[in-house]
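ok so i was messing around last nite and threw this chain in just to see what happens. nothing serious, just curious
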Amino acid sequence: MAVSVAIESPLQDDVTGLVEALDAYLVPLAPVEFHFGLNIEEMAGDATAVFVARSDAGEAVGLGALKDVGLDTGLRTGEVKRMFTAPTVRGQRIGSTLLDAICARARELGIERLVLETGVGEGLAAAVRLYENHGFTECGAVLDYPDSGYSRFFEKKLSA
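result:
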């Protein structure tokens, strides 16, 4: 499936629907206190760019976000958030297309390092493979996330 990816407002019904589907998918994977996703209002904030993948028919089929968190460990840092592909189109490299767009935008903004937090377990194995295939390496806890058995952390240094 060919998709187009653009930065869009999360305040659209179809994008909100993807966020709700992501939240529902994550519920059984960890206790609620270890869910760290941005809500729609946070996603609409100035520090966050939301990337939406759309099919040729205009249907929102995936999303991801880039949050500019400023300086962390001496490097301008961005955080990858809310990565999700609709179950009906998984395996068609939409997540990869979204992550490529996020990395490109981060470079344009002068972000030197990307970080992310994701859960553990088989339910997130495909996400982990996606991140590793895009050059992210596992690291210790990032930003202000607790170091718990429910999270894995990844980083990627970007060349300017």
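not much to say yet. The chain has a mean pLDDT of 92.
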